[in-house]
Amino acid sequence: MNNRSSSIEALTKALSKAHKDLNNFSVDKSGYNFKYLSLSAIYEKILPVLSQNGVALSSTNNVFVRDGIPWVKVATTVYCGNEFITNEMSFPLIEATKKTDTDIMMLGSTISYLVRYNVQTLLSISGSDKDAEAMHKESIEQDENKITLK
After folding, report:
1. What is the 3-state secondary structure (H, E, C) of 65-77?
2. What is the pLDDT of residue 140?
3. Taking the model in full, what pTM does it have?
4. pLDDT per position as a tens digit, 39-58
5. Position 149 in a domain
6. Per the domain annotation, does 51 fall within a domain?
7. How many Å is the Cα radius of gyration of the chain?
8. Which residue range forms the structural domain that includes residue 87?
């Protein structure tokens, strides 16, 4: 869901100036069978550029239960003066994959995941995450390589 102030003229001008310096992101993390751009790498690059252009960024989160399943909702907002654009995303709490994963670790992972995608969406930053087409192609290739024993 996207929400914005009635005017975003100054914000879009400031973001347009910032975009010239928001490029050349390098994938710095891997996990869950793919490589991606971490939230810390994104922040390291964007926060000084946004600040130089009078743009602020903030995120809030909230946990709720839907059909007995815990979900996390994250709202990330870019501001310039009184103007703002907010992007909201909700996702079920990521389940533990290792015995050492705690509930709080999974909550942190879910929040980081959603903030990362909100920031990338608001600032038009592409990451090297797998998209649906790449995942589908990989699935087909894996199916073709399966050997069935009879």
Report:
1. EECCEEEEEEEEE
2. 54
3. 0.78
4. 998 999 999 999 999 999 99
5. no
6. yes
7. 18
8. 2-144
Q: How many domains does the chain have?
A: 1
- pLDDT tier at 32, thresholds 50, 70, 90: low
Please name the amino acid found at residue 47. Answer: L
Tokens of 32: 């869950």
In a domain, 150, yes or no: no
- In single-letter form, the type of residue at position 66 comes to R
- C-alpha closest to that of 121 among 86, 81, 84, 92: 86
* DSSP one-letter string for 4-54: E-S--HHHHHHHHHHHTTS------EEETTEEE--HHHHHHHHHHHHHHTT
- Residue 72: CB atoms within 10 Å: 22
Per residue in 87-119, pLDDT (tens digit) is 999 999 988 888 888 989 999 999 999 999 999
Report the CATH number at residue 37: 3.30.390
